[in-house]
Automatic annotation (TrEMBL):
This is TIGR04086 family membrane protein. Pfam families: DUF3792. InterPro entries: DUF3792_TM. It comes from Priestia endophytica. It comes from the Bacteria. The chain crosses the membrane at residues 9-32, 44-62, 69-90, 102-122.
């Protein structure tokens, strides 16, 4: 694989994570607005969907990159986490809490696994 494909693969994964997060946010916003569901009852579902989104983002970056899926998935998660940190720090003047660091560590692991599986599925077509 050529070196110019690595940033494109990572960018595809980050875009996928943002798209999934945006779409699920819209769905849950409508659920919370038009039903009697409480926000607290959806906490674990939203957390699980977040891990799935990172897995899919890592999968897409690994499949697009074709090699070193753990590295592509990890870079995808790290880029997303850096963007979230910059938004939170520069926009809201807040730092990551310990709980957020744990979540983003889990997101990193999920994206790495997604990248590994994405590379293996991409290379098993022969």
């Amino acid at each position: 694989m050529e070196r110019s494909g690595i940033p494109q693969a990572i960018l595809k994964g980050v875009i996928a994570i943002f798209m999934i997060a945006f779409l699920t946010s819209i769905v849950f916003a409508f659920l919370l607005k038009f039903t009697t569901i409480a926000e607290d009852s959806l906490q674990w579902i939203i957390t699980a969907l977040s891990f799935i989104a990172f897995f899919i983002g890592g999968f897409i970056s690994g499949k697009s990159g074709g090699e070193k899926g753990w590295l592509l998935g990890g870079a995808t998660a790290l880029l997303f986490s850096c963007l979230v940190f910059l938004l939170q720090f520069l926009g809201y003047d807040e730092q990551f809490s310990l709980l957020q660091l744990l979540y983003h560590g889990g997101f990193l692991v999920a994206a790495c696994f997604g990248g590994i599986i994405g590379v293996n599925i991409a290379t098993n077509k022969t």
